[in-house]
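2024-03-11 09:14:02 DEBUG pipeline.ingest accepted 1 chain
2024-03-11 09:14:02 DEBUG pipeline.ingest length=195
2024-03-11 09:14:03 DEBUG pipeline.predict start
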Amino acid sequence: MSCFHYQGLNIKEDLSRFLNLISKSEALEEDFKQLILKTKSLNIIDGTDITIDSTKLNAFEKTEPKSKLKDDGKSPNWGKKKDTDGNDIKWFGWKLHILADSSSELPLAIEITPASVNDSILAIPLMKKLQDYYGNTFNVKHCIMDSGYDIKDNYDYIRNKFHAQPIITYNKIGSFALPEGLMKDLIQFVLWDMS
């Protein structure tokens, strides 16, 4: 980003200060919650089926080698994930983790992490945020996620604490043991019995 000066103002520094100031405020988060509650009252959001996934956010600053990165949980980092064709995508920046209503595709909870953070560990914090923000406003029945979330903790939380049905694509590489009775070559996702 180039730096513009207008009548003694440094636009880049002023914008940076402004973004820093609003990021420390709880006003944006409260406005976000109120908008979601309004869309629920207008029947725009159903909230029965939710989807969790992440997307990359590029950093618009100088990239750093891994050896010089700050590991403070906030600074940009190197990330890697697969696209829909199975190709590796690498970037320097952050990840935007989103819990969204499946029918309206509107976000209900979001988290931003360095790009190196594994997707699987963000499902539970996003579901907790949904419960903290909205209480019993949404009657979630299904939690849909890709194979990046295929870990036992997510299944257990969804079933036992969130009281919903996990629908998570099976991860042949990183999965915990495949549930008994399901064949690896035929399964598309793991659907757990809720009875």
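2024-03-11 09:14:41 DEBUG pipeline.report The two ends are 55 Å apart (CA to CA).
2024-03-11 09:14:41 DEBUG pipeline.predict end
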